[in-house]
Write a structure and sequence with these properties.
two-stranded antiparallel sheet, 208 residues, 25% strand, Spore Coat Polysaccharide Biosynthesis Protein SpsA, Chain A
């Protein structure tokens, strides 16, 4: 099943969007928060659709995400860690996985396009912000996905610890923002204070 949002596509790339459900901090399902006329998961789909038409949403509450125009996968595990969603999407990946999350809000598809353009065989391509490596702004080759599965099996839920051991290309977000003049390129929606920042974020859907 294909998403009907795609403008362009790479046949060997699928996008997995994690939308985990109700946030304990915010008290709502962050993927369903409306912003500038669409839900956050729909904004995410719109940006990743610039790279691929194969888009999957992974959630613990699939009934809440009906009608998106793409496959919605039931998270296989009830454990509250994004690793469970990553293990759920892994069997659908034949070559490359663009991994993101509905609460990682990108203001332009440019960041995903730069990640794709920076790939090297056998290496993940991961964005790095001032906070460190961003696992949900990454493109992963299929041969590295067992590292996520092993971490889940061993209950090693610190994602950045896994990334430290992973062969990778690192894309510096701040450098890309300075080079393109698009700032910020993304926002992680984790706290109630971040909700207030949503209205200040620009959108650059018209950017190539």
């Amino acid at each position: 099943m294909k998403s009907n949002l795609a403008k362009a596509g790479h046949e060997n790339l699928i996008a997995g969007i994690l939308s985990g459900g109700r946030s304990r901090r915010l008290g709502v399902d962050k993927g369903l928060i409306r912003w500038k006329g669409m839900t956050l998961v729909e904004h995410c789909m719109r940006n990743v659709s610039r790279l691929t038409s194969d888009i999957y949403v992974v959630t613990k509450n699939p009934g809440d995400y009906a009608g998106l125009g793409c496959p919605v996968l039931q998270d296989l595990f009830c454990i509250p860690t994004p690793l469970s969603g990553m293990v759920t999407i892994a069997p659908f990946v034949s070559a490359w996985l663009l991994l993101t999350a509905s609460d990682t809000i990108t203001t332009s598809a440019l960041l995903f396009q730069e990640l794709w353009a920076s790939r090297e065989p056998g290496k993940a391509v991961i964005a790095e912000s001032e906070a460190g490596l961003e696992p949900f702004l990454g493109i992963y080759p299929a041969e590295l996905l067992p590292m996520w599965e092993e971490a889940f099996r061993m209950k090693r839920f610190q994602l950045r610890k896994v990334l430290e051991k992973m062969p990778k290309v690192v894309l510096n977000v701040k450098g890309l923002e300075k080079r393109t003049g698009i700032e910020p390129l993304f926002l992680n929606l984790n706290r109630s204070e971040d909700l207030a920042l949503l209205d200040t974020l620009p959108l650059h859907y018209d950017h190539p």
